[in-house]
Amino acid sequence: MDICIIGSGYVGLVSGACFAEVGHNVVCVDNDPRKIEKLQRGEIPIYEPGLEDLVHRHVSANRLRFTGSIEDGVDHSEIVFIAVPTPPQADGSVDLSYIERVAREIAVVLKPGQYRVVVDKSTVPVKTGEKVDATIRRYNRNAEFDVVSNPEFLREGCAVPDLMNPDRIVIGSASQRATDLMKRVYEPFNAPILVTDVNSAELIKHAANSFLSLKISYINAVSAICEASGADVEKVADGIGMDKRIGRNFLNAGLGYGGSCFPKDVKAFIAIADELGVPFDLMKEVERINDSMLERFLKKMRDALWVLKDKRIAVWGLSFKPDTDDVRNSVAIELVRQLVEEGAIVTAYDPKGMEKAREFNLISDKVKLVSSPVDAVDGAEALVLATEWKEFARQDFAEVKRRMHTPLVFDGRNLFKTDTMREMGFVYCGVGRP
Ligand code: UDX
Fold it and tell me: Residue 434: inside a domain, yes or no?
């Protein structure tokens, strides 16, 4: 099928590459000329395992191309996906101006007799589809189209496998013609398809991300009870996770959730509920628990080190989670910021996130970035694990201990084994662990 994707960011680019992989012809559009030029040269603006190979292969096979023109994209495609940012505003509600602009731009390039399915893939508040529909009609009275909601559930760091093997495809549609076309788009993915009305599909995305955030805050709240009682949160999570109704996923206690989705989507869901006149206090508590995790962790560091000022502290991990170079809304970055604010001397290492942390000025010039985990711990009075990259668990800990001034480890993601660390002579402090 001929598919156009407007917005070549995370969701748009990965979706485009995966649609090409299953045999569709894809044109990705973006209004940033530099991004389009880069992509046309074969440069991939984000780090995502497997993406570069997919893009290169399908560009060579003429199944994937990039353009700055919405008209070019819409002209050649029966299905038009919208995958533009929906950033948060100061009050937590969603800024829908990019979606609105794209809806207008699509409207003016739609030609008479040219039926198009306009699919919203961006995460949007419930009832956005209705507004997109009304906007296109307002700017082009003769347009022939249907608006569909098709939320994307991919995770950063495993976006390609997530997209290729989704748990489910949600299609929110009021038109049989559009639903049939969407089913053809997704037929090659061999995944269960759930067809709903547009509003329900939009709500599914916010409800899913909020529920996962709730699971994380739940186990983080339990971790505080574990610390107060001497129980071990890892064992509690294993024990409750073995109940199939609960499941073990997203029950890892730590510094809390970050990234460009959960914090924003929880805020948005709270704002959406408020606007609809049905306040969602449960989610406010989820957010409060998440916000308290870093302070709880810093308190443990102060309890052990007394004063953080002038202490040499090594930080392993800057990205908001492993296997990504994304440092936006990363709790690790916020941790470094607060350590520097308190006067600590921070040396940090991250396998992929250091470049973007510097590029976006997210960490102070005072933070020394080094090229290996062991270099970070040279002379350190404490090591903090902030992001659970697998390579951190594989370090030579005898060497780490030798290089450190004091063998004190704060594990913000419960990556290391408590017994092993203590047997090696480290003073070890995790989250919710005795
Ligand atoms: C999330 C959703 O998983 C995905 O479906 C949606 O499309 C976008 O938002 P992502 O933000 O890429 O994906 O990362 P995810 O792996 O879900 O992790 C989010 C945050 O939660 C990370 O900061 C991670 O460290 C944290 N987390 C996750 C925990 O603290 N504990 C856990 O058990 C799981």
Answer: no
Select from 111, 186, 113 the least CA-distant residue to 148: 186
- 48, 51, 249, 250, best to mutate for ligand 1 pocket (most atoms within 8 Å of CB): 250
Same domain, 183 and 306: no
- CA 293 to chain CA centroid, Å, is 19
The closest residue, in CA terms, to atom 20 on ligand 1 is 257
Domain count of the chain? 2
CA 136 – ligand 1 centroid, Å: 34
Ligand 1 touching residue 155 (CB < 6 A)? yes
The two beta strands, 408-411 and 345-349, are unpaired
Examine the fold and report which residue of 196, 231, 256 is the final residue of a domain before the chain moves on. Answer: 196
Does residue 416's CB lie within 6 angstroms of at least one atom of ligand 1? no
* Token pair of 15 as six digits: 């979706």
How is residue 39 written in tokens? Answer: 């992509």
Q: In sequence order, which ranges of 231-330 are alpha helices (DSSP H)?
A: 233-241, 262-275, 281-305
Considering the domain architecture, whether residues 248 and 119 belong to the same structural domain is answered as no
CATH number at residue 285: 3.40.50.720
Q: Which atom of ligand 1 is closest in space to residue 153's alpha carbon? A: 7
Query: Looking at the structure, do residues 233 and 130 belong to the same domain, yes or no?
Result: no
Domain assignment of residue 247, given as a range: 211-429
Closest by Cα among 151, 92, 122, 89 to 270: 92
Is the distance from the beta carbon of residue 259 to the nearest atom of ligand 1 less than 6 Å?
Answer: yes
| Catalytic-residue membership of 28 | no
With a 6 Å cutoff on the Cβ, whether 382 touches ligand 1 is no
The residue type found at 203 is: L
**Is 177 inside a domain boundary?**
yes
Token pair for 409 = 């480890």
Residues pairing with 196 in the sheet: 172
Which one of 170, 196, 222 terminates a domain?
A: 196
From the first residue on, what is the mean pLDDT of each consecutive set of 10 residues in the chain (434 residues)? Answer: 96 97 98 96 91 96 97 97 95 95 98 96 96 98 97 94 97 98 97 98 98 98 98 98 98 97 96 96 98 98 97 98 93 98 98 94 94 98 98 97 98 97 98 97
Tally Cβ neighbours within 10 Å of residue 49.
13
Within this chain, do residues 21 and 60 fall inside the same structural domain, yes or no?
yes
